[in-house]
Amino acid sequence: MNEEIDWSALNEDEKVQSPEPRYRGWAFRFFLYSLITHLATYVFIAVRPPGLYDPWAYQRRLAILGLIAMITLVAALFMLILSHTRNEAPSLKRKITLAGIIVLGIFQIVTKVMAAQFFFSQDY
Asked: b or e along 37-74 (b: 16 or more beta carbons within 10 Å of the residue's beta carbon)?
């Protein structure tokens, strides 16, 4: 039961190398997280009954969901770039992630522009 390990037998060449991480899989996961966060944001906006919530708390929750969605989208883009630079084999996950990042990225830009126009058009 108590076996002695001969550490001198392990040379640098004989050490077990950890497998290279699959960046396309992580890119796909982060894309799915971003998609789920976007859908949660839309449901949060659509289900809100008027007059029942504190507006400041509502805006803070929307801002937090938006920030999480943007961070996961940028993480998916970063992992997709790593997947491409590490010459991983192209796959369906990579294509879906690329198309999804483009669509959600355009949507993020459009919503930020619309929010900025709304904010600057208000008279305070």
From this structure: bbeebeeeeeeeeeeeeeeeeeeeeeeebbebbbebbe
Structural domain including 109 reads 22-121
So what's the pLDDT on residue 55? 74
What is the C-alpha to C-alpha distance for residues 106 and 73, in angstroms, rounded to an integer? 11
Element (H, E) at 79: helix 55-85
Predicted confidence (pLDDT) at residue 101 exceeds the cutoff of 90: yes
Give Cα 2 to chain centroid, integer Å.
46
Residue 116 lies in a domain: yes
Q: What is the mean pLDDT of the chain?
A: 81
- Number of domains forming the structure of the chain: 1
pTM assigned to the model: 0.72
| Contacts (Cβ under 8 Å, ≥6 apart) of 65 | 37, 40, 41, 44
Is 110 domain-assigned?
A: yes
Torsion of CA 8, 9, 14, 15, to 10 degrees: -50
